[in-house]
From TrEMBL:
Source organism per UniProt: Prunus dulcis
Molecular function terms, GO-annotated: acyltransferase activity
Record key words, sorted: Acyltransferase, Transferase
Family note: Belongs to the plant acyltransferase family.
InterPro entries documented for this protein: CAT-like_dom_sf
Domain of life (superkingdom): Eukaryota
TM spans (from-to): none
Pfam families according to UniProt: Transferase
Identification of the protein by name: HXXXD-type acyl-transferase family protein
Length: 483
């Protein structure tokens, strides 16, 4: 389905404020050093699709009717129900209803509200599921957090006026629905995003119980664990702009790894020297990284291994501290693991003169590199924020090395997104639209919780090599229909 075939009509915009005012002692939230280093324009998007044929039990809400009048009435009911439950959820996630301060180091939690957009989509879900183009899906998420007009992509022109949360409730002709979210990365990492979705869905499913309190109340206190730095008289923080945003043509494609294919890949990569086969995330990342290095070699017409390659993966820090940090600690509680591959991984094939990257060796290098960094990373209090900032600067310097390839990775697996039942059943599909990042891959669970969907963004030329790589196609399908 071509991008220009989907028509999205915005029919209403409104502001949703917390159902109860934020107490005055909580109205100023100091950001942690990790929050400070996140660019203000970074709004990761997520989409939750709900088909009309979901089986709904125990919620008191059936699938939308095919009768047009009845369907419109149910749509209004669903929309109002989402808004009311969102207002209640914001009382617990109150910073998302605030605004970023001028210095970008504080959230003013003054209940300015989240943006809620209602849209009508001139197609059916089946059309999208048949051809799920990530570029096409961009119209289903709110248009906030875009780079500003001055060309530097810092988003500073309107950052203090932008909502930190925006929702787009999409209504399809077939009666299906999709909830598109954009949440400011300044205050939300993947774990916090998952907690927000779970809380909102549970609040909606409980059908208006005013006394309902989420089982896990978020704790917005990351600054006490990761002290902020003073950038008020320095231009240093400007160098932490979103790495990888580009005005050049990059495209996003979806590669789907079924559970059975991942199991086969894990079995192949199991090493006698290791007690366990690699995790499914590690196995998939290693394969994608290998294909990226091969694609770069072919695209540049240079010998394989003549250019080193770096891979960056985000790491959740909550369980790595001694004692462990609270699991309900909200904000950005993540750091980066970085591994560099060199020509030492290149080997000649047994039956030809061609050279290749040994995937088993690459997995071993990834596993060893990650473990070494986990061991050396500071996991005790008090936390040294200056060292954390130094690590970011070192990576930025590495990323600027034009004689090296780079791949940035994030795993959204195990976030329980497919449990998000707002009252009309669990999602038929959860995905991510195209995002303006180059040389990046995001992994997200398939609906069965065992397979993986990889959203890869690279140049058009590099993508051509990915789509024709026989080893990748042995384990993954290129943008198959949503089952």
């Amino acid at each position: 389905m071509a991008t220009d075939l989907i028509k999205v009509e915005i029919i209403q915009r409104q502001t949703v404020k917390p159902s109860s005012p934020t107490p005055h002692p909580l109205r100023t939230l100091q950001l942690s050093v990790f929050d400070q280093m996140i660019p203000s324009e970074d709004y990761p998007p997520t989409l939750f699709f709900y088909a009309t044929n979901n089986n709904v039990t125990g919620s008191g809400r059936g699938a939308p009717s095919t009768d047009m009048a009845d369907m419109r009435m149910k749509e209004r009911d669903y929309c109002q129900h989402l808004i009311q439950s969102l207002a209640k959820t914001l009382t617990h996630f109150y910073p998302l209803a605030g605004r970023l301060s001028k210095g970008h180091d504080v959230i003013q939690c003054t209940d300015d509200g989240a943006e809620f957009v209602t849209a009508r989509v001139k197609c059916s879900l089946s059309q999208i599921f048949e051809h799920p183009d990530p570029e096409m899906l961009t119209g289903l998420v709110p248009a906030i957090g875009q780079p500003d007009g001055d060309g530097d992509g810092d988003g500073d022109d309107d950052a203090t006026r932008l909502p930190l949360l925006a929702v787009q409730f999409n209504l399809f002709e077939c009666g299906g629905m999709a909830i598109g979210l954009k949440m400011s990365h300044k205050i939300v990492d993947g774990t916090t995003c998952g907690a927000f979705i779970s809380c909102w869905a549970k609040t909606a499913l409980d059908d208006g119980d005013n006394d309902q309190v989420p089982s896990v109340i978020p704790k917005f206190d990351a600054a006490s664990y990761f002290p902020p730095l003073d950038f008020s008289n320095s231009s240093q923080l400007s160098s932490a702009k979103l790495v990888g945003i580009s005005k050049h043509k990059y495209i996003t494609k979806r590669f789907v790894f079924d559970a059975s294919k991942i199991a086969t890949l894990q079995s192949y990569l199991a090493s006698p020297s290791s007690a366990h086969a690699p995790t499914r995330v590690l196995a998939v990342l290693a394969l994608i990284w290998k294909c990226a290095m091969e694609a770069s070699s072919k695209s540049s017409n240079i010998a394989l291994g003549s250019r080193p390659s770096s891979l960056r993966l985000t790491m959740d820090l909550r369980r790595r501290f001694e004692p462990p940090l609270p699991q309900n600690l909200a904000g950005n509680v993540v750091s980066n693991l970085i591994v560099i591959a060199t020509a030492s991984l290149i080997k000649g094939q047994e039956e030809s003169d061609d050279e290749t990257i040994d995937l088993k060796d690459l997995v071993a290098k990834l596993r060893k590199g990650f473990e070494q960094q986990k061991e050396t990373y500071s996991t005790k209090q008090p936390f040294d924020s200056n060292k954390a900032w130094q690590r970011v600067q070192e990576y930025r310097k590495l990323r600027k090395n034009v004689d090296m390839d780079h791949l940035s990775c994030a795993s959204w697996c195990r976030f329980a997104f497919y449990e998000a039942d707002f009252g009309w059943g669990k999602p038929a599909w959860v995905s991510i639209p195209s995002i303006p990042l180059k040389d990046a891959v995001i992994l997200i669970d398939k609906r069965d919780g065992k397979g993986i969907e990889a959203l890869l963004t690279v140049s058009e030329e590099i993508m051509e090599h990915f789509e024709s790589n026989p080893e990748l196609l042995k384990y993954a399908s290129v943008n198959p229909r949503v089952m």
